[in-house]
Design a protein that fits this description.
single chain; alpha+beta; six-stranded antiparallel sheet
Amino acid sequence: MPVRLGDPETVRLLRRGDRVDVIAADREGEARVLVSGARVWRDPDGASGGGAAGVEEPGGALVVLSVPRQTAAELAGAGTRSELAVTLW
């Protein structure tokens, strides 16, 4: 599941195989954990090495996470309403 994070610097810390929690922060400042223990799956450009796990773009940075199908739908919806962040395990 491609996930756009608000802070591109965070994505630079991630590597393939890392585990992360995905957190959504709404406009009122409330934060909630959407996913716990998602695995960084691969670089969005398809590289499989140990390089950076995301691509910086306007509005944030993209990272690809391996999550269950139902969780992917929840992440997609949350990404349209909230800013997403991750915490590294």
